[in-house]
Structures are given as structure tokens and as C-alpha cells.
Amino acid sequence: MEFAEYIPFWNKLTEAQQERIAGVIEYREVPKGTHIHDSSAECLGLVAVRSGQLRAYILSEDGREITIGRLFEYDVSLLSASCVMPDLQLNAMIEAEKDTQFWSIPACLFKNLIDESLAVSAYANSLISGNFSELMWLMEQIMWKSFDKRLAAFLLEETAIEESNNLKITHEKIANHLGTAREVVTRMLRYFQNEGMVALTRGTIEIVDADKLEKLQNT
Amino acid sequence: MEFAEYIPFWNKLTEAQQERIAGVIEYREVPKGTHIHDSSAECLGLVAVRSGQLRAYILSEDGREITIGRLFEYDVSLLSASCVMPDLQLNAMIEAEKDTQFWSIPACLFKNLIDESLAVSAYANSLISGNFSELMWLMEQIMWKSFDKRLAAFLLEETAIEESNNLKITHEKIANHLGTAREVVTRMLRYFQNEGMVALTRGTIEIVDADKLEKLQNT
Q: How many CB atoms lie within 10 A of CB B88?
């Protein structure tokens, strides 16, 4: 029952509730690039990440994307269980950014647990509150922050996640994270290169001057 | 105890819980323009609107605003009680758009009720989920919709709220709702006027062709 460790409210459940989870919880391993949830498909349920990296994003009618959250080891998300939350109407998609292992608790069981357990209800509350706060933060960035600063922040975040100054990521992918067009990303990266902050080679962005990016991000 | 009618979870409380609310609930009448909550001030608590109109918005460092939600009669908001939700970090402000009467349940009591009542916890959950969904919708509008459509939608919403085709609202106020600059609003309104959709006079915007605005909004 390794999964118990990945379910934050596990110790607050009764034994009977724990057994119900143990009976239906699903374990999956998916390769990088897999779409594990999309808004039109059936509701996946609560997702708990064992290893790897997931990305939640929204999609416009004409195919543009913007990342609204990322999930790492030990993270739990309700965005794939919106069907059980009557007031949660959203079209979030979730895809694996790396090879990922995760558990999912079916939506209907999770719904039952919310209805019968204060601890689970409080946990759902804190998850949604966290999502709401992150989305608010993201909207403030989009509204008030110029694109050069958002791109600098994204590159620094990626170097932290990858623990590397050599980012293997396409301009297209960055555009999908930040909700803009590829050309906009390319143009700004070239400007960063001219300013000596990054070096661009085919398929790779090398961070040359992280301090300068940091300063740009904070001005 | 007229307020009971404005508290959606009232009938699911124990008598003791109802008495605790009755003992501390506050009633206020504020004139249009009053700031009833700002992020730096102490936490107001749960707000329930008896009449009037409130607006929740966020503010950038340099003073730009964008409306994230509006509250009418019978609406309840948690945005003014974020202090009691540990994972809710936001800087929402709330102001009265019209003369407004409302009740507030102090934050600490509301926090206690969430912790002890499944019904209140579920209610808090649905409020935050609703806020999250609205914010997601708003972000999609900002990201994917051009400004002319957002302005058309705003004007139509205002005529519905005011039940009038003569809107007494400044370009500055509209800019603050939509998160843009006054000049941008003025320019677009002049274009709408040239297209025969609105007529502009000092301090008033008259909706001349609602159908055309509607079509613009939906294209």
C-alpha cells in the first residue's frame, strides 16, 4: 500500500474508507507526452503523482494553450475530478511532461468521501483554494507583467525543475506554456541572446547569465 | 432574524451554531463607492448581500484594476474571508458599486463552522469552486478574446444589470472593470459609435443597436 503515503488525508480516514480506496485505486505509468485527462473525456478522478511531471493547461478553440499548473512528485490534483465538484466548471487538460507514474482515485468514490468526511472536504477545499490562488497569480502576471519578464521567469523556473542550464525545449512548447505564439517567443529569445542572457542552438536554450534574467524578472 | 434567509447553509446548522452566528453577525449599510474590504486591512469575513451591488477586483502595483466578480442580492462571497482559508492567498478588494446593505459573519466564527460542519465545509467548497471557475472563464476571455468582443459583452451585461440602454458610466470605470487603459476604451467606443452600435454623450453611453453588439460578441 505504497500509495497511502501519497494521499495526504489517508490517516484521517476510517479503516472502512481506506479499504474502499484500496479496492479501486488505479496505478498507471505513462510515457512523456501522454494526455491523461481531457475535458471531453470521462472524469479521471483525483490524481496523486508518484514520480514524473504533469502539466495542466487550457486550450482555446483555435488550439492555443496556456499552462495553469504543474504537478510533481507527491502533488495531488482535483482538476481531473471537476465532474464531482458541482460548481467547478472548467476545461482543464492534463498531459505528462515526462514519463510519469501516478495513482488515481475514481471520481465517484472521491465524491462520496467528500460528502461523508470533514477531513476530505477540508482537503478538497485547500486544493481548490490553492488552485484559485495560483490562477489569480497567473492572471496578475498576464495582466500586469510584460512578456519579457514572464519569459525570464519561465526560463529560470525550467532551469530549477531540470537542474540544468541547458534547456531542451522548443519555442513552440514555451509558447504553449505562456499562452502566446511561437514567433513571439522566438523574437524575445533572440533579444535575450543579443543581451547575453541566453545562447540559442537547435533545440536547446542555454542559460548564460541567470543573474541578468533574475534582475529582468524582478524589475 | 431576516439574515437567516441570506445564509444558504442556515438550515443545516445546529441551533447552537445558529445562535453563535446570531450573536456576532454584523449588518451594514454603505453608500456607493465605499471600500468594504481591502487586502491589507483586517479580514472582513463571509459577506451576504441584502441589496445593492458589490464588485470584487484586483489591483496592480501601479494602480490598474480588473473586476473578478460581482455580487448582487442573495449572493455570498468568501473573497473577503481569505484569511481563514489557509491556502487562499489573494489580494482581492471589494467595493460597493451601488448603495449596498449586507451582513458579514466574522472570519474566525466562519472558520470554526467550516471545521466542525460538513455542510458549511461543502458550502465553502462550492463557493471557492464557483470563484475558480469564474476566474478561469475570465482568463480565457482575456487570453483568447479580442478587446472589442469583451467590451461588447461588458456593455450588454451592464444594460441587463441596469435594465436600461442608457449607461451612466465613465470610460475610466469600464477600463477598471476590464483591466485596460482609459484611452483603449475610448478608442473602441468611438469605433462602436461609428459603426452605429452606441451613441456617446458626456458621461453616458447609449446602446443604439444591441443586436449588432450581440453579434460582435459572439463572432
A: 23
